[in-house]
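User: Fold this, then the next.

Assistant: Folding the first:
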Amino acid sequence: MTTGGDPISQNPQPLILDLAGQTRDFHLRMSVIHCETATALGLTRDRHGRTVHPDVAAAALARRNKTAVEAYARHLAAYAEPLLDAAHRALDDLPPGRHITGWRRVLDGLAVSATEIHRALDRPAAAGSPAERSQHTALWPHLAAWADHGAIAAGLAGQHHQPEPPLTGEEQKQWTEKAQAAQQRGELDLIESWWAADGQRITLAYLVEEDTSTVIALTGDRDAPGWETIGHYANEYAAGRALPRPMPPGVLRPNAPSRFTRPEPAPEVSLQELLRDIVEARTAGDTSEALLTAVQRGSATGPMIRMEELLHTAAQFAQALETVQGQQTAARLYALSRQFDFLSEEVRDAAEDLGASVAVLPPHRVPAPPQNRPSPAADTTPPTPPRTTTPAHSR
């Protein structure tokens, strides 16, 4: 890949902003394509998620792949190479860190995907042919890689930005004390946070004093000792220009599929459907079966087990934040996950006991008759509604 470095090295910011904008536009377009395809595929499935119209589903996927190729050609075909070059140069200038190797792998993967996509764009198959469908199908993982990870390349390329010097000495001490006092009053409102290239955790916040509000930047963990104020600004825009650029945020599970490549979820029975089954049940066995479905494990995992998994995974995420608040929240979520596990076992035991009773509802629980009105006879005319008269108003 050629460097093309002179324009960026001499005046990097306008071009980098353009590269980042094109990357963002492509991601947004891919998100729209994904949502439209999900809606189309939903119409091809039954209520349990099984595909019942495979030809229609195949056509929806072919349309998705073709539209994604067109979106890449419009937004990124002319920008992928300079974006990767800028990201590689920025990565070379970053301080050492355990994330550097991983980011290099991401950039290398994007380069491979760009090569495959450009090869297909240069030698497209005949329009509308089976070969074109196959070509576009093979490109989908590469297009998804750019939709998922293009923002990482853009974020790294943006590290050419030179931040302003942070507060030091007595001024830093004064603003840190102000921020700590506001935190104790409950008047330090957090805005956003990110990691900088040097390993700092930076947090923007509104410092409220009487009727005034000032945007300040903190470094460190706000819930742990030792955090400091490193700057104060007129607004968020000024803070963004003065502070170090954000590093691309991490992921909870490096090998987890993204929204664009994850497989279709296994068919599941919803809680709403299980509740309806119980309302409509006549025997204890029917209700027992609904309860057992809710706590089933394995390929047909029940909704209560999914809730347990949700809490456990959210706890892992909170713990991975590496903050004091994150650790505290993780402990709460782990405890709730264990409680759901215990609750699921209790539900299973109760369901088995209910099923073993072989009981049925007593006959005095008679269903209410349907609220249907009799239709008028075919040889009759509907009654004429009574006429209403409006009383005359006296003048």
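Now the next one, as you asked:
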Amino acid sequence: MTSRKPDEHLARNSRLRLVRPRALATARRAVTNRRTRPAPRPPEGTPPRAELARQARTVLADAVRIARWAALDAEPRTAAEPRRRTFLDQERAAAALDLTPGQIRAGWDRARLAGLVELHGGTARPGWRLHAWDRDDSAVLRGWVALFDAWSLVHPAPDGVAPGAVAEVVEAVPQVLSLLQLSAGPVVVPALLDLLGQRVDELREERCEVPVEGATDGTATATPAGPDGRAALLDWALEGLADVGALTLGEGPDGRQATLTPLGNWAVWVKLEQICVAAQSPAGNIEQSAEDMLRGCAGLTPGPARDEYRAWLAARTLSSAVAELIAVARGEDALLRGLAFEALRVVGAPAEAEVRAAAEEISLRPYALLWLAEYEGADPDDAPEVLTREEATWLWVDTAAAVADHGESTLLVRHLESAVQGTVPALLDEVRAVGHPRTVQVLVALAAAHPDPALAKAVRRAAFQVHTGGA
């Protein structure tokens, strides 16, 4: 039996179900049609959410300081001075925050991966999580989970190891984390190494791959040189997870051991249970701001949500209400962007001028064009046909960001079917090219959620390429 490169396998076996573009309109509403069911209780001994959020804030404290400093440093100092176009002045940041350049680089990287900052062209902007950091425990926990999912991007892999071997270990790490979670205490590293080896062998057997002796081309069949190589990769994985606050490493009576932190234990449980950690807001939002009103409607089905929109609009002048909704849509929370345009559909004709103006803004253009198409009489299911391929891809990523932030992982996997591209490789190529500021976080979340190992590996590779600026 011959080995097969993962990309060849992916291109041959991972065709997306071809759907009409109208599926994008359905995807816009995915997060408002979530299943309602009682949330499972966390394991006994799990700290309260407020305590978990406090621990997450501690892990990301430097990243938050750097993100806030960068936001202030980007502001013009005089009316005539243009906004800075650099991502981060590391020397100025190090001097201002009393951190080393290495700490600045690491903190900036974490801030990006946790959604505290977003890159728009040549400008870094504060992410919506940064704005909510001090008051919203759910935003904090989701930011930390995004960093937890991206641990392999935070901690560089050892030099001289085939990329395929690194990918195998990343794929096998969830099994290691599950053992740590089930053990509810420290586990010696040799036991974790045995489990890692078994899982890697299982993954190869599932793919019917035969290791190629001496392979160094980065395919999944390339292996580290002997047990020491795999042990080094396990050390790398454990240190990477420790870097993001998911576990601690120490010496025990039987040698080196790993223990999940309360944050890591909670995160593994959340992923095993596949629950959503976003808080549900109650109805009755007439006196709230547009942002709080939309958050309150996020858990409602479309009918009750429209009733809330109508009641909220009736208590305001339409011009001010439309302006407030557009302002929310310009924010970083993709879920609120979609909901804002749902509320604008209730407004109707009085919103037309503002929506046409919004169509000139990149982040609002797909939503505005869909609104205008429906306003001019197009069937809502056919309205997505007005979007160009690039606009549809941008909307796909934006919707995926909303699902990743507020929905269940199964919804994110299901969202793949709404892509207009025919195959996963084609989708990844166009997603990388479209330049959405949340591309890395979306791809990392999709890779963490998808059950197909080959597809998940290709998505992780694409996330790494976007993160490092590769093609």
